[in-house]
Structures are given as structure tokens and as C-alpha cells.
Amino acid sequence: MPVELVTYVVQNLVAEPGAVEISAEQDDRGVRIEIRCAADDAGRVIGRGGRVINSLRTLARAAADGRQRVEVNLIE
Amino acid sequence: MAERDLDRYLEGLGIDVDDEGTKDEPMLHDVSEDEVDVFEDAEILDMETALGTYGIGGVIPDDLDPRERTETFLVHVLLDLDATYTVDVIDRGDEILAEISGGDAGRLIGKGGRTLAALEFLSNAVVNKGDADPIRVVIDVGGYKRRRDERLRQTAMRAAARVRKSGEAVELEPMSAAERRIVHMAIAEEADVVTESTGEGRARRVVVSPAD
To answer: Rounded to two decimals, what is the model's pTM?
Structure first.
């Protein structure tokens, strides 16, 4: 499932896994996943040119059922 | 993930599957109303023990080598995607090669290979986290990349033949960096034609020209 997947990947990307908080909001159109992490880890979650967070979005969509929408954002 | 592969994965983490003593016990039994709370508490405790001790659902242990890190990461991610994938990870010295089979290959490859590219990119980021001497992690799904690379080499060779015949440069379709690399490498072996990349971002493409 997308939330578990995002949680696992983010925890293994950052220097401070203990500071990672993932929240998810489900509505009829899909799921909105919000990532919170230590300030120093924000760059690791976003990546150069947004490549890490965009890859997370792509993978989270593959983990979702059918056509449900998946949004993944880092809250700073 | 097949049960056999999950067993192998757990064994890799030092969890002796057969000694758990749970295999012969019935998985389900009738639970009376007043038993429920105790039962649920027990489940949560077990999961927390697993999380803390084996890094399941949490952070990959520090003492694993790159091959083990790759395997641990992929087994976990693949379980979240579809329980029927299996993965074989080998250390080839200069790179880690992970071959994924079973399950819905198309779902993991994605449109234009984008999901696979995302998985590969994140695997590299996680496996090489904080490592001064990174090793490349290469992932294939059901032979997809092998076939794609072969197709790209054929495209490159056809372009080279056209350039030779006409004496004029041929521009190929826009490609990803990985795809352009295959084309450059295929044509580098040819003496009479050369390649270069042109354009920016998604429009970046290879131009094949006659060698001077």
C-alpha cells in the first residue's frame, strides 16, 4: 500500500529516521500522503531537482489500487 | 513474495523460520469476546519486537553489505506493491544486479519504464546512503531492460547504416539518459560514425553523424 511504502522508503533515505512522521488522508478520490522529517533531511527527501520526491510519487502510484489518486508532499 | 522467498529473506536477517514453532499451530481460532483485547495486544507487541529487532518495517540495519541492503530494501518495497514478486540480487563487483520476476511485471515497469526507473533511483539512494564510495544498483524486471537494450542497439545500428549510405546525420527519438548511454556505447564500436546528444530535458536525443 502507498502509505507503508512511502514510510519505509523515507525512513531509509534520511539520517534521522526517528524524526519521520507520515500522515495520510483518504477521501473518495484517493489518498494524500504528507511527510514530515528533520529539517536537515528535507534535501534528502526532495533530491536534486525534486528527483527523489518525484520517484516516491511514481512508486506510490504503482502501489495504489487501480485509478485512485495518490498525492505525496513534504511538509516543511 | 512467495512464502519460500519470505522465509529466505527472514533467514538472511538471522530469523530462524523453522525454529519459530508457529508453523504447526493453527493460524486462526475462535476468539471469544473477552479474549479480544489480550489477543490484539499480543499482536501489537509481536510487531514492535519485529520492528526493533530485525528492522522489519523500519530502518535497514547498518551492518549489511550493499548486496544485502539492496535485497532487504527491494523485498520490503515489493511486499508493499504485490506479494507475488520474487527478487534475486547478485554482487557483480562493480555493480549490484537485482532481477525481479513473478507478479505483474507491467505494473512495476510502468509507462515507458518510469516506475522501474523510479525504483532503481530510490534503491541507489537508499543503498548508497552516506557511502563515500557508491556502488551502482541495476534492476531488471522480467528481462524488460535486456530486451529494451537489444532493441536500442538495433535502432542504433540501423541509424548508423543510414548515415553511412547517405553521408548525412540522423537524429533519433528523444530518450532517457540510460537509453542514450546504450546507443552511444553501441555506436562507439563503429569506426565510421560518431554520436552526440542534443536538446534539453525530456527532448534530449542522440544524433548520429559520419566520422570525419
So the answer is: 0.72
